[in-house]
């Protein structure tokens, strides 16, 4: 006689739940802010409407705040049995440094604050960020016991 299958969730085995690194959850936010800043720079270039310029400045500043949170979370992840993915972490750091320069360029007044330097920087930041997050929104790798590094 076979035992009937249990419908109780406590009796079911867990699917190997893999804990995601903390920073991996936060990385999409600065990427979205910087991508939106590039889009608003393009809109400003096409319309010369001051509203788009102001949106760009706020989006870049918000992206920098979120990037700082990602860096803090990545540092916590490094203490939680992670190792850095150096090329992607350095690309992410380069994008943050370029964004700091970009917010300074955008802080100038007038059309020349965005065109051509601000628009170019926004585009470069977006390309560098897309490279940095290409391995799956992560800047670290998990150590595995018995696996080759």
From TrEMBL:
Coiled coil (residue ranges): none
Q: Indicate whether Transferase appears among the record's keywords.
A: no
Transmembrane region positions? 21-45, 57-79, 86-105, 111-133
The protein's UniProt keywords, in alphabetical order, are: Membrane, Transmembrane, Transmembrane helix
Q: Which domain of life is it from?
A: Bacteria
Q: Which residues form the DUF2231 domain?
A: 20-148
- Keyword Transport in the entry? The reply is no
Q: What is this protein called?
A: DUF2231 domain-containing protein
Q: Please tell me the species this chain comes from.
A: Bradyrhizobium betae
Q: What is the lineage of its organism?
A: Bacteria, Pseudomonadati, Pseudomonadota, Alphaproteobacteria, Hyphomicrobiales
């Amino acid at each position: 006689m076979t035992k009937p299958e249990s419908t109780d969730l406590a009796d079911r085995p867990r699917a190997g739940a893999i804990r995601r690194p903390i920073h991996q959850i936060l990385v999409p936010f600065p990427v979205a802010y910087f991508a939106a800043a590039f889009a608003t720079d393009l809109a400003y270039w096409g319309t010369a409407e001051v509203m788009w310029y102001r949106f760009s400045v706020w989006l870049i500043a918000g992206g920098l705040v979120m990037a700082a949170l990602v860096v803090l979370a990545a540092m916590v992840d490094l203490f939680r049995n992670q190792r850095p993915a150096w090329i992607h972490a350095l690309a992410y750091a380069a994008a943050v440094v370029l964004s700091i320069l970009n917010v300074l360029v955008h802080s100038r007044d007038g059309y020349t604050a965005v065109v051509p330097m601000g628009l170019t920087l926004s585009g470069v930041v977006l390309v560098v960020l897309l490279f940095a997050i290409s391995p799956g929104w992560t800047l670290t790798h998990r150590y595995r016991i018995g696996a080759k590094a």
